[in-house]
């Protein structure tokens, strides 16, 4: 079994600035409505990092970050999928930074 | 009719005070100006200029994109005898500053977002805000003695190589030319004309002033791209364009492209053949689908700036569009000759207009005399002297002939290639033979200087192989006289030739390049700083460096645009420029030049076209409204007992207005409708989510028929939806929308979408909050039929109007608070 990992780190103040500039248009281009349910900037920065990490780990790159869907199970553990690929992800925050790691699971 | 000076010209607007003069759409809102208003603003501008110390003979500079304010300023200057130095806004700041030094203007008007480095100069004023400065001045003409001989404008000839010369034109020059054109072209006041070329060029300025002298309506677009031109043609039902050959070729190419995509190439070819033999007035029916894409009303294209390839002109004529070619120079205000509407020749720019004398000198040069010919260049007596003969004829520098009264242009004297044998070759002669050859995108013939005379060099842009090109050249040589043969060819270093602002190939630059290649560095994309425009402003904003130097060859990565910032870029292009480009089409390797091309291709037209037009047909509304009022109102009473509070808040309401409500139930559209008085109801359109309407065809039909419903895209791209909404409001429709963007079954108010604030601030129409109480659960989500009977209260809040300067995010939040507290 061969997997693939991806990692990404986000500087939250910069993310907040760009989100402010790009506004709803930017958020709607990146996130799905369910992901936007909680619009806290730290939360969204974490999701952004996760999507970038998934993008790097993906076998076939998705067209846009919106094609990557992130969901949480009952225990709050996040996972991601793009069409038929699925990923384990882990997101962490510290101070001004959010970081995420993604692991592609292959058969 | 003759005008002695611009005072008389502006006064002549009194003949048609209520006609629509200019229309523009800086952002969402469509703004209109009648001739009376334009006249008023011209008088106010004149008084404002006087108040700011501008007197007769002073210079006032303008470097801005086309707008009604540009024309107001131009006319205001003329009314006090000031000279307008009109500069092409796409020039670099450095060049504009050079013109400023040469002409020492007292005031400089510019767009606030462009050429920001000039803001620190004294006397710099934002043209965008002109109307707010002039507001307080009386709307009567200042009493200044005017005469035709006063200098009116200074326009710099486009010269990328030689030092540009400032052409000084008098009021009489321009007004004489206007009269000359009026006598040749029978202007119909009902024409609707799209203005796409820069007003800083005499072709556009005199053209627009001539059309306005008859009360024609002029339409501006703020960001000129093919997509925006196409949209404006349809929205404004344009009948005429002042164009250049390059634009006409481009539109033609897009028509062919569409035909290819739809598999109609053969049909188009057959139609073109048939068109040539049927009467002109019937041709447009043959090309019905092409015309409907162009708005369905286009009758005339005027072309100038460069000679039009004959096959392009013929293609337009075949489609039933009169193609009217003219000829002129900045120095001649500008028109020298033009075809008339009824008598057109495709290979000639027409007969000289009546108040200009034209002669062909011994050398073959076209020379001109008349009241529209300038007196001289700004502070450059040597150049002035050089450009006139001893007897006062202006030397155009073009070679041509006159046959039966029609003028034919052969080429420019300075580009004639002289063989060692003394025989002369006109580059234009060879180019017209090569025209349409599929082996090249374009071809430019220049002389290559050798020890014994010049040889003929073909410089080529093409993506074909060397062999294909060589074959094509030998074919072309076969049809030329032997002394005209192409001796050598080379590929141009870029995809396209350098061009003047009016689309002409800058032959001088090509010639210089051809003759200097030995010394030049290996060819590379020129590393010139790119034009100052909205795109550069946006990139600077995102990067956080207001002074960032941006070059055409820069990659987005060079400018620090990582994936997040690139997404901000795409988002801002969408919200600020109204253009949608797919984010997957750009990456860190994308250059600014490529991005510009994407901007030109990007389109917001598609999304809008999907909305059916029938909803707003008169008879559909008649039937839909009648059924709604009689049948549905009655049915509704079975399930909903309605109480309305705060009706008095609608007294003195300025319609159209935007009504916003809390979305708690799928039954709210009928309920909202019923809570409003009839005078609002009869012109009330309900916005529904695009994705919902697309999925439920029957529901969508009901919604459109009875509630004048239209689809609003709640996800991206939402700009086209906002444009569409503002167009409905512009046509007098009241709008009902839910700012939450989705149903809140719990009744808890969800965060508002920013679109509502954007509309409210930009359009300046009243927003009326409506709160429905007790409706939740009547028709719950996913059910088709009412589940229970409800007692419902609709509370109408006070209308609120936002100032145009407010921040739309704050406006959105304020509306949300108002709704919460209602």
Report on the structure:
The complex is a heterodimer of chains A (107) and B (822). Chain A has 107 residues and is an alpha+beta fold. Chain A has a single domain, classed as Ribosomal Protein L22, Chain A. In chain A, strand 2 and strand 3 form a beta hairpin. In chain A, helix 1 crosses helix 2. Chain A starts with a strand and ends with a strand. Chain B has four domains: 238 residues, ANL, N-terminal domain (Rossmann fold, 3-Layer(aba) Sandwich), CATH 3.40.50.12780; 101 residues, GMP Synthetase, Chain A, domain 3; 69 residues, ACP-like (Non-ribosomal Peptide Synthetase Peptidyl Carrier Protein, Chain A, Orthogonal Bundle); 212 residues, 3-Layer(aba) Sandwich (Glycerol-3-phosphate (1)-acyltransferase), CATH 3.40.1130. Chain B is 36% helix and 19% strand. Chains A and B meet through helix 1 of A and helix 19 of B.
Considering the chains and any ligands shown, give keywords for the structure.
heterodimer; A: 107 residues; alpha+beta; Ribosomal Protein L22, Chain A; 2 helices; globular; B: 822 residues; alpha/beta; Rossmann fold; GMP Synthetase, Chain A, domain 3; Non-ribosomal Peptide Synthetase Peptidyl Carrier Protein, Chain A; 4 domains; nine-stranded mixed β-sheet; seven-stranded mixed β-sheet; 32 strands; 19% strand
Shape of chain B: globular
Helix content of chain A: 25-40%
- For the terminal residues of chain B, how far apart are their CA atoms? 62 Å
Low-confidence stretches of chain A: none
**How much of the residues of chain A is beta strand, in percent?**
25-35%
CATH architecture of chain A: Alpha-Beta Complex
Based on the structure, what is the oligomeric state of the protein chains?
A: heterodimer
* Structural class label of chain B: alpha/beta
- How many discrete structural domains of chain B? 4
Number of E-state strands of chain A: 5
Supply the CATH superfamily name of chain A.
4'-phosphopantetheinyl transferase domain
Estimate the mean pLDDT confidence of chain B.
86
How confident overall, as mean pLDDT of chain A? 86
In helices, the fraction of residues of chain B equals: 25-40%
Q: Which value, in Å, is the CA radius of gyration of chain A?
A: 13 Å
């Amino acid at each position: 079994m061969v997997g693939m990992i991806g990692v990404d780190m986000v500087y939250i103040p910069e993310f907040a600035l760009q989100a402010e500039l790009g506004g709803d248009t930017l958020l709607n281009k990146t996130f799905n409505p369910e992901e936007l349910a909680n619009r806290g900037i730290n939360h969204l920065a974490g999701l952004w990092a996760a999507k970038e990490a998934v993008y790097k780990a993906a076998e076939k790159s998705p067209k846009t970050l919106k094609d990557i869907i992130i969901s949480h199970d009952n225990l709050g553990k996040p996972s991601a999928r793009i069409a038929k690929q699925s990923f384990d992800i882990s997101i962490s925050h510290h101070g001004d930074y959010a970081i995420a790691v993604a692991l592609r699971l292959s058969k | 009719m003759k005008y002695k000076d611009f005072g008389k010209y502006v006064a002549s607007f009194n003949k048609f005070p209520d006609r629509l003069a200019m229309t523009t759409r800086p952002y969402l809102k469509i703004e209109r100006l009648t001739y009376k208003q334009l006249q008023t603003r011209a008088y106010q501008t004149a008084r404002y200029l006087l108040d700011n110390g501008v007197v007769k003979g002073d210079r006032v500079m303008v470097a801005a994109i086309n707008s009604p304010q540009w024309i107001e300023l131009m006319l205001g200057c003329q009314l006090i005898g000031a000279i307008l130095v009109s500069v092409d806004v796409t020039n670099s700041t450095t060049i504009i500053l050079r013109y400023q030094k040469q002409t020492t203007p007292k005031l400089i008007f510019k767009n606030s977002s462009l050429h920001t480095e000039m803001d620190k100069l004294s006397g710099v004023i934002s043209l965008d805000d002109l109307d707010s400065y002039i507001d307080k001045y009386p709307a009567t003409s200042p009493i200044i003695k005017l005469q035709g001989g006063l200098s009116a404008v200074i326009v710099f000839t486009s010269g990328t190589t030689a030092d540009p010369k400032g052409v000084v034109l008098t009021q009489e020059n321009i007004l004489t030319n206007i009269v000359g054109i009026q006598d040749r072209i029978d202007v119909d006041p009902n024409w609707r004309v799209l203005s796409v070329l820069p007003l800083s060029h005499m072709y556009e300025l005199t053209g627009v002033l001539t059309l306005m002298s008859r009360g024609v309506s002029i339409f501006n677009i703020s960001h000129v791209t093919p997509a925006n031109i196409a949209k404006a043609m349809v929205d404004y039902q344009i009948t005429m364009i002042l164009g250049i050959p390059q634009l006409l070729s481009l539109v033609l190419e897009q028509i062919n492209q569409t035909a290819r995509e739809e598999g109609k190439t053969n049909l188009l070819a057959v139609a073109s053949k048939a068109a040539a033999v049927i009467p002109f007035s019937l041709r447009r029916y043959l090309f019905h689908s092409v015309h409907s894409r162009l708005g369905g009303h286009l009758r005339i294209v005027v072309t100038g700036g460069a000679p039009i390839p004959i096959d392009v002109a013929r293609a337009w004529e075949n489609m039933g569009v009169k193609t009217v070619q003219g000829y002129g120079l900045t120095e001649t205000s500008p028109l020298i000759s033009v075809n008339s509407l009824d008598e057109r020749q495709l290979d000639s720019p027409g007969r000289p207009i009546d108040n200009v004398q034209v002669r062909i000198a011994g050398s073959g040069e076209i020379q001109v005399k008349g009241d529209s010919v300038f007196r001289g260049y700004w502070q450059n007596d040597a150049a002035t002297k050089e450009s006139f003969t001893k007897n006062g004829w202006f030397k155009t520098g073009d070679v041509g002939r006159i046959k039966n009264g029609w003028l034919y242009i052969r080429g420019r004297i300075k580009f004639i290639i002289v063989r060692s044998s003394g025989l002369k070759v006109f580059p234009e002669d060879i180019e017209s033979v090569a025209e349409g050859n599929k082996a090249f995108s374009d071809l430019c013939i220049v002389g290559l200087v050798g020890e014994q005379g010049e040889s003929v060099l073909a410089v080529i842009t093409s993506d074909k192989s060397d062999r294909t090109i060589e074959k094509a050249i030998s074919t072309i040589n076969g049809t030329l006289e032997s002394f005209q043969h192409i001796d050598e060819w080379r590929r141009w270093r870029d995809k396209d030739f350098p061009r003047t602002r009016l689309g002409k190939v800058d032959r001088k630059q090509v010639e210089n390049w051809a003759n200097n290649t030995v010394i030049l560095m290996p060819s590379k994309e020129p590393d010139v700083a790119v034009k100052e425009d909205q795109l550069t402003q946006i990139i600077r904003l995102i990067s956080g460096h207001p002074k960032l130097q941006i070059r055409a060859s820069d990659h987005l990565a060079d400018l620090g645009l990582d994936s997040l910032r690139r997404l901000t870029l795409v988002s801002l292009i969408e919200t600020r420029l109204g253009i949608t480009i797919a984010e997957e089409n750009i990456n860190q390797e994308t250059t600014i030049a490529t991005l510009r091309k994407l901007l030109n291709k990007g389109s917001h037209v598609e999304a809008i076209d999907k909305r059916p037009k029938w909803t707003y047909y008169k008879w559909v509304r008649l039937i839909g409204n009648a059924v709604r009022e009689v049948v549905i109102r009655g049915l509704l009473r079975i399930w909903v007992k309605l109480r309305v509070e705060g009706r008095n808040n609608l007294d003195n309401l300025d319609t159209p207005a935007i009504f916003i409500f809390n979305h708690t139930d799928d039954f709210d559209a009928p309920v909202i409708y019923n809570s409003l008085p009839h005078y609002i109801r009869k012109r009330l359109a309900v916005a529904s989510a695009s994705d919902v309407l697309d999925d439920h065809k029957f529901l969508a039909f009901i919604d459109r028929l009875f509630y004048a419903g239209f689809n609003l895209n709640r996800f991206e791209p939402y700009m086209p939806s906002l444009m569409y909404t503002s167009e409905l409001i512009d046509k007098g429709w009241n709008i009902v929308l839910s700012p939450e963007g989705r149903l809140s079954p719990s009744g808890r108010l969800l965060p508002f979408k920013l679109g509502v604030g954007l509309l409210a601030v930009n359009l300046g129409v009243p927003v009326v909050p409506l709160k429905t109480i007790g409706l939740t659960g009547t028709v719950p989500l996913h059910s088709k039929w009412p589940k229970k009977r409800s007692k419902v209260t609709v509370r109408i809040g006070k209308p609120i109007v936002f100032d145009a300067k407010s921040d739309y995010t704050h406006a959105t939040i304020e509306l949300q608070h108002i709704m919460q507290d209602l």
